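Input (structure):
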C-alpha cells in the first residue's frame, strides 16, 4: 500500500500530464485522477497507524490470492499514470 506522500507524488504527475495533454478530454481525465489521488492521500492521513497496518495486511492478502485487479495495457499518459504503482 503506497504512502500518502506517494499518492501526492502521483497527483503531481497527473497535474504534469494534464499540462501536456493534447486534448481537453485527456486534460480533464488527468485532473480528475489528480483529485482522486489527493483524496486518497487525505484519507490515509486521517487513518490511525493500526488502520494503515490493517489495510496493508489486506492488500498483501489480495496480492497473494491473486485477487488484486490486474492492470490493463494502456498507452500514452494512461500507461504512465496507471503504471506508477505496478
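Output (sequence):
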Amino acid at each position: 500500500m503506497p504512502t500518502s506522500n506517494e499518492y501526492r507524488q502521483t497527483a503531481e504527475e497527473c497535474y504534469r500530464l494534464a499540462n501536456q495533454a493534447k486534448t481537453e478530454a485527456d486534460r480533464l481525465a488527468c485532473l480528475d485522477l489528480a483529485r482522486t489521488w489527493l483524496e486518497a492521500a487525505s484519507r490515509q492521513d486521517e487513518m490511525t497507524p493500526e488502520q494503515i497496518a490493517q489495510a496493508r495486511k489486506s492488500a498483501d492478502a489480495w496480492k497473494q490470492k491473486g485477487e488484486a485487479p490486474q492492470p490493463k495495457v494502456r498507452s500514452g499518459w494512461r500507461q504512465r499514470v496507471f503504471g506508477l504503482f505496478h
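Notes: The mean pLDDT is 83. Residues 4-82 form one domain.
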